[in-house]
Amino acid sequence: MEFVVDSFRFLISVPAADDDDGEWLKEMRGNLGLMATMVATMAFQNGLNPPGGVIQNGDGGSVACPSSSPVGHGQAACPGQSVYAARDRHGYSGFMFTNSASFLLSITACILVISGVPLGRGYPTLALAMLMSVSLILLAVSYALGTFHLNPRIQKTPVAFRVFIYVFVTFLVLLLSLRFAALILSLRRVKKKKQELQGTNSVAAAPAAAASS
Q: What is the pLDDT of residues 60-113, one digit of tens each?
């Protein structure tokens, strides 16, 4: 029980607030930029090279669209189009949505990092971290959908697979919600402490100013 409590405290812990937090911000900015670049690269590759590959050219290198589907389904597919899309339109739509959303969120994070947007120890950094967290979750879901398409054994148990995905995503959402709630509370405490410190300094400076006048 003590191990569980200590683990929970570690997950929601936040860096100690101090006046000189430049190193923390620099490290945080670098980590977020690196993560955004890696996720954008993986999502880009997944989008242009979908699971299962693409329809190949016909006889003699023909690129004309066939009258019937080359993958054994009713929907015809032209050379260069995704095999996944020809076999499972709904599954491919889910894969492309999650993968494209992950790619766009990562690109947005990359632009924010390299554009010089000031990321102080506050809500801008928190928003960027949330952006990348959502991007990673979407990338994990797109990976799961691609794996489901490629693995015949998993396709035999679609209900169990979906339940696993729902439980996994729900766990991540709850974990991230606790983490970001702790960060927001920490930011509010830091802001309140600074306001109290400014008020104390103002009160202390008032008698000195009156004496000098």
A: 555 566 655 555 555 566 777 888 888 888 888 989 999 999 999 999 988 888
Residues 6+ apart with CB under 8 A from 96: 47, 50
CA–CA separation, 139 and 162 (whole Å): 16
Tens digits of residue pLDDT in 146-201:
888 887 777 677 777 778 888 888 888 887 777 777 777 766 776 677 666 666 65
What count of Cα atoms within 13 Å lies in the side-chain half-sphere of residue 14?
A: 19
Q: Residue 85 in contact with residue 92, Cβ under 8 Å?
A: yes
Domains held by the chain: number: 1
In a domain, residue 14? The reply is: no
**Separation CA 19–CA 1 (nearest Å):** 36
**Distance in angstroms between the alpha carbons of the first and the last residue of the chain:** 63
Domain that holds residue 169: 19-191
- Residues recorded for the chain: 213
CA–CA–CA angle 38, 135, 145 (5° rounding): 95
- Please write the tens of the pLDDT for every residue from 109-146: 888 888 877 766 566 777 788 888 889 889 988 988 88
Backbone angles phi, psi at 66, to 5 degrees: -75, 160
In a domain, 11, yes or no: no
- State the Cα–Cα distance between residues 170 and 160, nearest whole angstrom: 15
